[in-house]
Amino acid sequence: MTAWSTADIPDQSGRVAVITGANTGLGFETAKALADKGATVVIAVRNTDKGKQAAARIGGTVEVQELDLTSLASIRDAADALKSRFDRIDLLINNAGVMTTPKGTTKDNFELQFGTNHLGHFALTGLLLPTIVDVPGSRVVTVSSNGHKMGGAIHWDDLQWERSYSRMGAYTQSKLANLMFTYELERRLAPRGKTIAVAAHPGTATTELARSLPRPIERAFLAAAPVLFAQKPDGGALPSLRAATDPGVLGGQYYGPDGIGQQRGNPVVVASNAVSYDVAQQQRLWTVSEELTGVTFPV
Protein backbone atom coordinates (compact mmCIF):
# COMPACT_ATOMS: atom_id res chain seq x y z
CA MET A 1 0.00 0.00 0.00
CA THR A 2 1.32 3.40 -0.95
CA ALA A 3 2.08 5.52 2.09
CA TRP A 4 -0.17 8.56 2.59
CA SER A 5 1.69 11.88 2.86
CA THR A 6 1.08 15.61 2.73
CA ALA A 7 1.40 15.33 -1.07
CA ASP A 8 -2.00 13.61 -0.99
CA ILE A 9 -3.77 16.56 0.64
CA PRO A 10 -6.23 18.04 -1.85
CA ASP A 11 -6.19 21.75 -2.62
CA GLN A 12 -7.55 23.62 0.41
CA SER A 13 -8.04 27.01 -1.23
CA GLY A 14 -11.12 28.79 0.08
CA ARG A 15 -11.31 26.64 3.21
CA VAL A 16 -10.94 27.92 6.77
CA ALA A 17 -9.19 25.71 9.32
CA VAL A 18 -9.11 26.47 13.06
CA ILE A 19 -6.42 24.51 14.94
CA THR A 20 -5.92 24.64 18.69
CA GLY A 21 -2.40 24.59 20.09
CA ALA A 22 -0.80 25.12 16.69
CA ASN A 23 2.22 27.21 17.65
CA THR A 24 4.40 24.12 18.16
CA GLY A 25 4.64 20.36 17.65
CA LEU A 26 1.86 18.45 15.91
CA GLY A 27 -0.40 21.50 15.66
CA PHE A 28 2.31 23.55 13.98
CA GLU A 29 2.96 20.82 11.41
CA THR A 30 -0.77 20.45 10.80
CA ALA A 31 -1.17 24.19 10.30
CA LYS A 32 1.82 24.37 7.97
CA ALA A 33 0.60 21.54 5.78
CA LEU A 34 -2.88 23.06 5.42
CA ALA A 35 -1.53 26.56 4.76
CA ASP A 36 0.82 25.13 2.12
CA LYS A 37 -2.27 23.72 0.39
CA GLY A 38 -4.01 27.11 0.34
CA ALA A 39 -6.21 27.05 3.44
CA THR A 40 -6.80 30.08 5.63
CA VAL A 41 -5.46 28.79 8.94
CA VAL A 42 -6.29 30.14 12.38
CA ILE A 43 -3.83 29.27 15.12
CA ALA A 44 -5.83 29.27 18.36
CA VAL A 45 -3.31 29.52 21.19
CA ARG A 46 -2.94 30.81 24.74
CA ASN A 47 0.28 32.73 24.02
CA THR A 48 -0.41 35.00 21.07
CA ASP A 49 3.22 36.14 20.81
CA LYS A 50 4.30 32.55 20.21
CA GLY A 51 1.36 32.19 17.86
CA LYS A 52 2.51 35.14 15.79
CA GLN A 53 6.03 33.75 15.63
CA ALA A 54 4.65 30.42 14.43
CA ALA A 55 2.45 32.14 11.85
CA ALA A 56 5.49 33.96 10.47
CA ARG A 57 7.35 30.65 10.09
CA ILE A 58 4.42 28.98 8.38
CA GLY A 59 3.71 31.67 5.80
CA GLY A 60 0.57 31.71 3.68
CA THR A 61 -2.69 33.02 5.12
CA VAL A 62 -2.38 32.40 8.85
CA GLU A 63 -4.19 34.27 11.61
CA VAL A 64 -3.81 34.06 15.38
CA GLN A 65 -6.64 33.81 17.89
CA GLU A 66 -6.13 33.95 21.64
CA LEU A 67 -7.58 30.87 23.33
CA ASP A 68 -7.05 29.50 26.82
CA LEU A 69 -8.68 26.07 27.04
CA THR A 70 -8.46 26.17 30.84
CA SER A 71 -10.97 29.04 30.93
CA LEU A 72 -14.59 28.83 29.78
CA ALA A 73 -14.66 32.63 29.60
CA SER A 74 -11.68 32.63 27.22
CA ILE A 75 -13.27 29.87 25.14
CA ARG A 76 -16.47 31.89 24.80
CA ASP A 77 -14.53 35.02 23.88
CA ALA A 78 -12.53 33.13 21.25
CA ALA A 79 -15.64 31.54 19.77
CA ASP A 80 -17.37 34.91 19.56
CA ALA A 81 -14.31 36.44 17.88
CA LEU A 82 -14.04 33.63 15.34
CA LYS A 83 -17.75 33.74 14.50
CA SER A 84 -17.51 37.48 13.93
CA ARG A 85 -14.54 37.03 11.56
CA PHE A 86 -15.72 34.00 9.61
CA ASP A 87 -19.19 33.14 8.38
CA ARG A 88 -18.06 29.53 7.87
CA ILE A 89 -15.43 27.19 9.27
CA ASP A 90 -14.52 24.14 7.22
CA LEU A 91 -12.16 22.41 9.64
CA LEU A 92 -11.94 22.49 13.41
CA ILE A 93 -8.94 20.50 14.63
CA ASN A 94 -8.99 20.00 18.41
CA ASN A 95 -5.26 19.42 18.77
CA ALA A 96 -4.06 21.19 21.94
CA GLY A 97 -3.50 19.23 25.10
CA VAL A 98 -1.57 18.67 28.29
CA MET A 99 -0.09 15.38 29.48
CA THR A 100 0.69 13.89 32.91
CA THR A 101 0.68 17.25 34.68
CA PRO A 102 0.98 17.61 38.45
CA LYS A 103 -2.39 17.76 40.17
CA GLY A 104 -4.09 21.03 39.34
CA THR A 105 -7.33 22.62 38.20
CA THR A 106 -8.52 24.85 35.40
CA LYS A 107 -9.84 28.34 36.07
CA ASP A 108 -13.28 26.76 36.38
CA ASN A 109 -12.07 24.19 38.93
CA PHE A 110 -12.05 21.16 36.63
CA GLU A 111 -9.21 18.66 36.92
CA LEU A 112 -6.55 20.16 34.66
CA GLN A 113 -6.14 17.38 32.09
CA PHE A 114 -9.83 16.47 31.79
CA GLY A 115 -10.75 20.15 31.78
CA THR A 116 -8.23 21.13 29.10
CA ASN A 117 -8.15 18.10 26.83
CA HIS A 118 -11.85 17.24 26.87
CA LEU A 119 -14.09 19.88 28.43
CA GLY A 120 -12.27 22.80 26.80
CA HIS A 121 -12.57 21.28 23.35
CA PHE A 122 -16.14 20.14 24.01
CA ALA A 123 -17.12 23.73 24.82
CA LEU A 124 -15.21 25.22 21.88
CA THR A 125 -16.75 22.77 19.43
CA GLY A 126 -20.27 23.41 20.68
CA LEU A 127 -19.85 27.18 20.47
CA LEU A 128 -18.34 27.08 16.97
CA LEU A 129 -20.62 24.42 15.55
CA PRO A 130 -23.20 26.87 14.12
CA THR A 131 -20.49 28.06 11.69
CA ILE A 132 -19.48 24.49 10.82
CA VAL A 133 -22.53 22.28 10.78
CA ASP A 134 -24.08 23.26 7.45
CA VAL A 135 -20.82 23.72 5.51
CA PRO A 136 -20.55 20.95 2.90
CA GLY A 137 -17.50 18.78 3.55
CA SER A 138 -16.76 20.30 6.96
CA ARG A 139 -15.08 18.24 9.66
CA VAL A 140 -14.35 18.26 13.37
CA VAL A 141 -11.13 16.37 14.08
CA THR A 142 -10.21 15.64 17.68
CA VAL A 143 -6.75 14.38 18.61
CA SER A 144 -6.74 11.54 21.11
CA SER A 145 -3.91 9.21 22.12
CA ASN A 146 -3.13 5.52 21.88
CA GLY A 147 -2.62 5.88 25.63
CA HIS A 148 -6.41 6.01 26.08
CA LYS A 149 -6.25 2.21 26.26
CA MET A 150 -4.20 2.30 29.46
CA GLY A 151 -6.89 3.74 31.73
CA GLY A 152 -9.79 1.40 31.05
CA ALA A 153 -12.81 3.61 31.69
CA ILE A 154 -14.18 6.97 32.78
CA HIS A 155 -13.87 7.39 36.58
CA TRP A 156 -17.50 8.29 37.19
CA ASP A 157 -17.12 7.97 40.96
CA ASP A 158 -14.31 10.59 41.00
CA LEU A 159 -14.44 12.33 37.64
CA GLN A 160 -12.29 15.26 38.77
CA TRP A 161 -9.76 13.08 40.64
CA GLU A 162 -10.45 14.84 43.93
CA ARG A 163 -10.05 11.82 46.22
CA SER A 164 -6.86 10.49 44.65
CA TYR A 165 -4.76 11.60 41.72
CA SER A 166 -2.78 9.75 39.08
CA ARG A 167 -0.99 11.80 36.43
CA MET A 168 -1.27 9.05 33.84
CA GLY A 169 -4.74 7.98 34.93
CA ALA A 170 -6.13 11.49 34.51
CA TYR A 171 -4.41 11.81 31.13
CA THR A 172 -5.74 8.52 29.76
CA GLN A 173 -9.26 9.38 30.98
CA SER A 174 -9.12 12.69 29.09
CA LYS A 175 -7.99 10.96 25.90
CA LEU A 176 -10.72 8.32 26.21
CA ALA A 177 -13.18 11.19 26.62
CA ASN A 178 -11.91 12.70 23.34
CA LEU A 179 -12.90 9.52 21.52
CA MET A 180 -16.27 9.11 23.22
CA PHE A 181 -17.03 12.75 22.39
CA THR A 182 -16.12 12.19 18.73
CA TYR A 183 -18.31 9.12 18.36
CA GLU A 184 -21.33 10.74 19.99
CA LEU A 185 -20.84 13.96 17.99
CA GLU A 186 -20.76 11.95 14.77
CA ARG A 187 -24.00 10.22 15.71
CA ARG A 188 -25.64 13.63 16.18
CA LEU A 189 -24.16 15.12 13.00
CA ALA A 190 -24.94 12.22 10.69
CA PRO A 191 -28.61 13.05 9.99
CA ARG A 192 -27.64 16.48 8.63
CA GLY A 193 -25.27 14.90 6.12
CA LYS A 194 -22.75 17.73 5.72
CA THR A 195 -20.31 17.60 8.66
CA ILE A 196 -18.41 14.63 10.03
CA ALA A 197 -16.55 14.06 13.29
CA VAL A 198 -13.29 12.10 13.13
CA ALA A 199 -10.56 11.25 15.64
CA ALA A 200 -6.82 10.74 15.26
CA HIS A 201 -3.75 9.94 17.30
CA PRO A 202 -0.10 10.63 16.46
CA GLY A 203 1.48 7.48 17.82
CA THR A 204 4.56 8.48 19.76
CA ALA A 205 6.02 11.78 18.57
CA THR A 206 8.87 13.84 19.98
CA THR A 207 6.97 16.97 20.95
CA GLU A 208 6.74 19.29 23.96
CA LEU A 209 3.74 17.32 25.25
CA ALA A 210 6.09 15.22 27.37
CA ARG A 211 7.40 18.26 29.24
CA SER A 212 5.28 17.46 32.33
CA LEU A 213 6.61 13.95 32.76
CA PRO A 214 8.52 13.44 36.03
CA ARG A 215 12.10 14.46 35.31
CA PRO A 216 13.93 11.10 35.35
CA ILE A 217 11.23 9.54 33.16
CA GLU A 218 11.23 12.53 30.85
CA ARG A 219 14.97 12.41 30.34
CA ALA A 220 14.87 8.69 29.58
CA PHE A 221 11.92 9.14 27.22
CA LEU A 222 13.44 11.99 25.27
CA ALA A 223 16.74 10.15 24.94
CA ALA A 224 15.30 6.82 23.85
CA ALA A 225 12.16 7.72 21.91
CA PRO A 226 13.71 8.99 18.66
CA VAL A 227 15.82 5.87 18.34
CA LEU A 228 13.41 3.21 19.57
CA PHE A 229 9.91 4.06 18.42
CA ALA A 230 8.97 7.73 18.07
CA GLN A 231 8.49 9.78 14.95
CA LYS A 232 9.10 13.45 14.34
CA PRO A 233 6.22 15.92 14.68
CA ASP A 234 5.63 16.09 10.92
CA GLY A 235 5.07 12.32 10.91
CA GLY A 236 2.91 12.49 14.01
CA ALA A 237 0.69 15.09 12.33
CA LEU A 238 -0.17 12.83 9.39
CA PRO A 239 -3.11 10.98 11.05
CA SER A 240 -4.76 14.32 11.88
CA LEU A 241 -4.12 15.63 8.39
CA ARG A 242 -5.54 12.53 6.75
CA ALA A 243 -8.59 12.65 9.02
CA ALA A 244 -9.05 16.30 8.08
CA THR A 245 -8.53 16.14 4.33
CA ASP A 246 -8.70 12.68 2.75
CA PRO A 247 -11.88 12.52 0.61
CA GLY A 248 -12.36 8.88 1.58
CA VAL A 249 -12.64 9.52 5.32
CA LEU A 250 -15.92 8.50 6.95
CA GLY A 251 -17.50 10.02 10.01
CA GLY A 252 -16.64 8.25 13.25
CA GLN A 253 -13.35 6.82 12.00
CA TYR A 254 -10.15 6.92 14.06
CA TYR A 255 -6.76 7.38 12.37
CA GLY A 256 -3.34 6.42 13.70
CA PRO A 257 0.02 4.99 12.56
CA ASP A 258 0.09 1.44 11.18
CA GLY A 259 3.44 0.41 12.71
CA ILE A 260 4.08 -1.92 15.64
CA GLY A 261 2.01 -0.79 18.59
CA GLN A 262 0.76 2.14 16.49
CA GLN A 263 3.87 4.05 17.55
CA ARG A 264 4.76 5.32 14.08
CA GLY A 265 4.06 4.62 10.44
CA ASN A 266 1.55 5.31 7.70
CA PRO A 267 -1.74 6.91 8.86
CA VAL A 268 -4.60 4.40 8.58
CA VAL A 269 -7.93 3.62 10.22
CA VAL A 270 -7.34 2.04 13.65
CA ALA A 271 -9.57 0.81 16.46
CA SER A 272 -9.99 2.31 19.91
CA ASN A 273 -10.73 0.31 23.07
CA ALA A 274 -14.06 -1.36 23.71
CA VAL A 275 -15.19 1.15 26.34
CA SER A 276 -14.90 4.03 23.87
CA TYR A 277 -17.65 2.46 21.71
CA ASP A 278 -20.13 2.12 24.59
CA VAL A 279 -23.04 4.31 23.48
CA ALA A 280 -24.55 4.64 26.96
CA GLN A 281 -21.23 5.89 28.36
CA GLN A 282 -20.78 8.27 25.43
CA GLN A 283 -24.18 9.78 26.10
CA ARG A 284 -23.55 9.98 29.82
CA LEU A 285 -20.28 11.82 29.19
CA TRP A 286 -22.07 14.17 26.80
CA THR A 287 -24.73 15.03 29.37
CA VAL A 288 -22.16 15.59 32.12
CA SER A 289 -20.03 17.73 29.79
CA GLU A 290 -23.00 19.94 28.93
CA GLU A 291 -23.78 20.36 32.61
CA LEU A 292 -20.20 21.21 33.56
CA THR A 293 -19.52 23.64 30.70
CA GLY A 294 -22.97 25.14 30.24
CA VAL A 295 -22.58 24.59 26.49
CA THR A 296 -25.27 22.83 24.44
CA PHE A 297 -24.98 21.81 20.81
CA PRO A 298 -27.27 22.72 17.89
CA VAL A 299 -27.44 19.03 16.90
From TrEMBL:
SUPFAM superfamilies: NAD(P)-binding Rossmann-fold domains (SSF51735). InterPro entries: NAD(P)-bd_dom_sf, SDR_fam. One of its GO terms (molecular function) is oxidoreductase activity. It comes from the Bacteria. Keywords: Oxidoreductase. This is Short-chain dehydrogenase. It comes from Mycolicibacterium obuense.
